[in-house]
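User: Second chain of the day. Same drill as before.
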Amino acid sequence: MVSGHFGGKEKNISDFKQSKRIEYLDFARGLAILFMILQHSLVVYAVDGGETSLLGGIFVLLGTAPAAPVFMVIMGLFFMRPKTIGVSYGIKRGLTLIALGYVLNVFRFYVPILIATKFHANLPEFMTPVSFLLSVDILQLAGLSLIFMSLIRCFLPTHQWTRGTWIFLILIIMIVLIISPLLWGKFGYNPSLSPFFGDGETIFFPFFPWVVYPVFGMLLSHFLLNPKEKFIFKKLVITGLLVTFIGAVLWTQVSNAIIVQGDYHRSGLAVHFVIIGFILIWLPLCKIIFNQTRDFSFIHKILLFWSKNTTVIYFIQWVLYGWGILIFGCELLSVPASLFIGVVMCLLSHALTRIFVKLKRKYQ
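Assistant: Same format as last time:
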């Protein structure tokens, strides 16, 4: 790995904790998985995605900022550990995740939708086998982000954290947020570019702008992996409130398309400021909740298990939801019924993940 020096006051990255897991971050990632599974049930099975009712809206909201953005931030945060993976392995792992994303597309929706169309099932117009075969979800994003972070590490100091490191990562975040709205859909229908700039209904997590979250996680690693930083959580909350306020002002007072463009999956700078501010508040809150719920250690164990096996449980729950369309249809159920299915899917996904992990250990 190439080592660089940006100048400025230095702090030794080797002082960061790395020998054991940071449990409250695993707790936060486990919660993200829980919210994600429940939200997916609403998105797939509930009428209008569950957004027309207060209860559905709450769970849909929990499946946004506290879910995918938190997961991607923690991914970037852990990537900055000194004993992280090398560049070549990071690229190989990233390519594997991208390939796994398209394998998932085959099993979760392509085959079930193909079967459903044979029996003339009532599906939304955009829900075609080909559109979901080429859909872009968080596995593709994670793979591309892992490759990108591996390349970034080539230009960061290997052993020192400098002022230049801050500037470099912040510049990447700001550049991505500013140029992303200029890129979406500008290249027409091109499956090879969809993971980067796509704007179709099945392009859920394009690299631009979502890569800002793992890069932001790399930035946060200086604080959350550094045991020498005192009062850091208070500072994070204050900064989070400030960033959220700035984002809210931009969101409500500015009409520029780059600032306020898009929806959850393709949003302008203002929305991402609000989400980043939320994350700065949410992670300290997760630490408080984690410390205050130690009496419920079984819940902690489950969430820790999910955090350790994120890719597996993500794959399994989506396959279950995809094939569930053949039983429950798509966007036909009430919010309570969809949430009940979501709870069942949590239990099934947990059980099947445990079986997978045991079999993997047995045959390794």
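The chain has one domain: 21-363.

User: Great, on to the next one.
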